[in-house]
Design goal:
globular, Rossmann fold, alpha+beta, 11 helices, 2 domains, Tumour Suppressor Smad4
Length: 320
């Protein structure tokens, strides 16, 4: 598959989130990125998102107006919204990391200063990837990286946004340790028809989690399946050894942790219980939900070294 040199990029748009932590803390970075793109012959129009939940419709409207390249600048939540408006089109998505965790950017091995990413855009390769479709009682949403049900979604739901703006990812750890002595609800998880139970279910397309850890160690954007990591336990303290196991790369061997792969996952709460769900780091609702793989749904621009590495990775059968 060729690089961006073989693609037309005559009507490129940077769709950016003006409130993204990386952009607000480094206001000059966006202008530097525009200049780096111009040096490669890519002229861009700058369009700000209009608020939470608006980027999907904006991306769709831009494509209908003739945009042939969308560059999403912001965090994983912004990228998710933009991608939802680009599915099943031939328009490629590039990303400029400007969020808190930047999970997708780290997964595909982008440099985190966005102006450096912009300076390498002509070298990127278009890669057609699958996404996850999360069906909830009232609506459906797609996700590029992951969805989580149970503990991690509860942490996202309780997150102090002012603290997140001030200290970034550290806010998640503060909130997480605050859940140590809280009771947790176990719920049913069906993976391709096979039953499990968990108080935290991670349904992932990527290995990276939160920017610092790897939990779904066999996941890949190039696989047409999820890697599902399931943790059991009804009190938050049970997760302290799990966290150590994840840090050491041994959680998948611990009692109470199961790793499976599949294309369809349904999570159902026990009667009378509220269990939260997060998509790419943003609260999405509550169980029940069903996640299904949608193959070849999006064209994502990735660095050539990532693509070569990932092609070699998926050529070897994933081992839990």
């Amino acid at each position: 598959m060729g690089s961006l040199e073989s693609l037309h990029a005559e009507n490129a748009v940077i769709l950016y989130n003006p409130t993204a932590r990386g952009l607000s803390r480094r206001p000059r970075s966006l202008q530097s990125s525009i200049e780096a793109l111009a040096r490669q012959g890519i002229s861009t129009t700058l369009v700000a998102t209009k608020g939470p939940g608006t980027a999907t419709a904006q991306a769709r409207n831009l494509i209908e107006s003739g945009c042939d390249l969308i560059i999403a600048a912001g965090g994983d939540g912004t990228i998710n919204e933009v991608a939802n408006g680009m599915l099943h089109t031939d328009v490629p998505l590039a990303i400029l990391p400007g969020g808190t965790a930047n999970v997708l950017a780290r997964e595909i091995r982008l440099p985190l200063p966005m102006e450096r990413v912009a300076g390498q855009l002509r070298e990127m390769h278009p890669c057609r990837v699958a996404v996850g479709a999360l069906q909830m009682p009232s609506h459906q949403r797609m996700f590029l990286c992951m969805t989580g049900a149970g503990l991690d979604a509860e942490i996202v739901n309780r997150l102090n946004l002012d603290l997140k703006a001030a200290v970034g990812k550290f806010a998640y750890y503060v909130c997480g340790f605050g859940q140590v002595f809280h009771p947790l609800t176990e719920f049913q998880v069906m993976v391709d028809g096979n039953p499990y139970e968990a108080s935290f279910a991670l349904i992932s397309r990527v290995r990276n989690y939160g920017g610092d850890l790897e939990i779904a160690r066999g996941a890949s954007l190039l696989r047409d399946e999820f890697e599902i990591v399931l943790f059991r336990g009804t009190i938050g303290a049970r997760y302290l050894p799990y966290l150590l196991g994840v840090a050491l790369g041994r959680a998948h061997r611990m009692r109470g942790c199961s790793v499976v792969r599949g294309r369809s996952v349904t999570c159902t709460p026990p009667a009378g219980s509220d269990v939260y769900v997060q998509i790419d780091g943003e609260v999405a609702g509550k169980l029940p939900v069903t996640a299904d793989i949608v193959p070849a749904a999006l064209t994502l621009l990735v660095p050539p070294r990532y693509l070569a590495r990932e092609q070699a990775f998926v050529a070897v059968p994933a081992c839990a």
